[in-house]
Design brief:
single chain, alpha+beta, tRNA-splicing ligase RtcB, 9-stranded mixed sheet, 8-stranded mixed sheet, 27% strand, GTP-binding
Length: 490
């Protein structure tokens, strides 16, 4: 690594400082556009420590990629396309890349607000975490809130949150506070394989495993009071965060289309520096089918999180002996962070329709965008950025600079700095649980100690630093910070 004030080099990849927190890998060779990393000096050192920069540079070879490939402050090495990556490709002359969306289609987060305060929960943390763990399905394999039959799965894939409303699992307000109102109209259930549907039908309403979780939190800091008020957030408030995706169904959709791309578009694949970036040419039959299948999996993930939220409301009702409506358990927002969407953006003064791939990145539209729910159109989109189970999380709002800098995107979390294998060598799950409870008053319940070790706070980047960079760049503005009270994991 070279060390000049305005130049960095990691494993032969040169980055030049464009301005504070913006680093560029200049276009050279077969790169179609430059690449950009949004990071502080501290975060850049961590991002440069694995293959993230190589993967980001590889992404600039995608056909039709516009402006630049982008790595968010929480970026780290992924499958082909880096986690924390954003790449926008032309919908007519570009491509759509399952490898740039990832296996967990519409992995995302939602936050539910309440009128409870931390005083209402103190002394009842163990009761609450045990009740949540007993009633919200988690872990590998099957088991969900709903054991779906064929018609249910088809309905979920086609109609998303509309299905949940029809079946009594949601209220109208839930849909109004969900990205795209919880339904992608381009969904095509017929493009989803029967194997994928079979994998998903018994997982509706389940967290899964890995870094997915349900966490009860308290608001500890308010940075923008007017925005916080618009979001229904206040100091010392209890909120609930749900983080999960499309389970085995989404994974199977990605696997199915990666295999088909290898068979049907080997010529495009051969021109890419990494076959894990696998992409289908825009306008091709395969591209259209993947988009329809991906949108269906997106719908599945929104319903999955909705069912978990429904069950959480029921648990709170039993523990606190009040109706969820009386506790004002309302959905603040649900936002996806593994997705490709058709959006219109300004590229060099020209309005262009693009597939905006966000892999481990969150949409961050500022006030005024027509896609935003009416409740937030004048204030900006809520953004939810979870930290580790021993650190804070954040609610932001879409920043004024996001459209110009990042195709309306920001970070999605803290970002890992350590592999799961290494984490299990470094940490002992029971020790992590005990330390969190005794030192931080955070109560954690998981299917296994190994899961806790893999998700120990020390394996993640500093979420405060990630959010600071987002705020300084004006792509996602800090609204409130939260801190864990209790957490359940698969």
């Amino acid at each position: 690594m070279t060390d000049d004030a305005d130049v960095r080099e990691f494993d032969g990849i040169r980055l030049e400082r464009v301005r504070d927190y913006v680093w560029e890998i200049p276009r050279e060779g077969d790169m179609r556009v430059p690449a950009r990393v949004l990071a502080s000096e501290k975060l850049l050192e961590q991002i440069g420590g694995d293959k993230t920069l190589q993967q980001l540079r590889n992404a600039t070879h995608l056909p039709g990629i516009a402006k630049h490939a982008i790595c968010m402050p929480d970026g780290h090495q992924g499958y082909g396309f880096p986690v924390g990556g954003v790449g926008a490709t032309d919908v007519e002359n570009g491509c759509i890349s399952p490898g740039s969306v990832g296996y967990d289609i519409n992995c995302g987060v939602r936050m539910m607000t309440t009128n409870l305060t931390y005083d209402d929960v103190q002394g009842r943390e163990e009761e609450l975490v045990e009740a949540l763990f007993a009633n919200v399905p988690s872990g590998l394999g099957g088991g969900g809130v709903v054991q779906g039959d064929r018609d249910a799965v088809e309905g979920v894939l086609a109609r998303g949150m509309d299905w949940a409303l029809e079946e009594g699992w949601a209220v109208e307000e839930d849909l109004a506070h969900c990205e795209d109102e919880g339904m992608r109209p381009d969904a095509d259930p017929s493009a989803v394989s029967q194997k994928a549907k079979d994998r998903g039908k018994n997982q509706l309403g389940s967290l899964g495993s890995g870094n997915h979780f349900l966490e009860v939190q308290r608001v500890t800091d308010v940075f923008r009071e007017e925005v916080a008020d618009s979001f229904g957030l206040f100091d010392d408030q209890i909120v609930v965060l749900v983080h999960c995706g499309s389970r085995g169904l989404g994974h199977q959709v990605c696997s199915d289309y990666l295999r088909r791309i290898e068979k049907e578009h080997g010529d495009l694949l051969a021109d890419l520096p990494d076959k894990e970036l696998a992409a289908a040419p825009a306008g091709s039959e395969l591209a259209e089918e993947y988009y329809g299948a991906m949108c269906a999996a997106i719908n599945f993930a929104w319903v999955n999180r909705q069912l978990i939220m429904h069950r959480t409301r029921q648990v709170f009702e039993r523990v606190f002996e009040r109706d969820w409506e009386e506790m004002e358990m309302h959905l603040l927002y649900d936002v996806a962070h593994n997705i490709a969407k058709k959006e219109v953006h300004d590229v060099d003064g020209e309005e262009r329709e693009l597939y905006v791939h966000r892999k481990g990145a969150t949409r961050a539209f500022p006030a005024g965008r027509p896609e935003l729910p009416s409740a937030y159109r004048d204030v900006g989109q809520p953004i939810i950025i979870p930290g580790s189970m021993g650190a804070g999380s954040y609610v932001l709002r879409g920043g004024e600079n996001s459209l110009n800098l990042t195709f309306g995107s920001t970070a999605h979390g803290a970002g890992r700095t350590m592999s799961r294998t290494q984490a299990k060598q470094e940490y002992w799950g029971e020790t992590v649980q005990n330390e969190l409870r005794d030192q931080e008053k955070i109560y954690v319940k998981a299917q296994s100690g190994a899961t806790v070790a893999e998700e120990a706070p020390g394996v993640y980047k500093d979420v405060d630093e990630v959010v600071r960079v987002s705020d300084e760049l004006g792509i996602g503005d800090k609204v409130v910070r939260t801190f864990p009270v209790c957490n359940i994991k698969g």
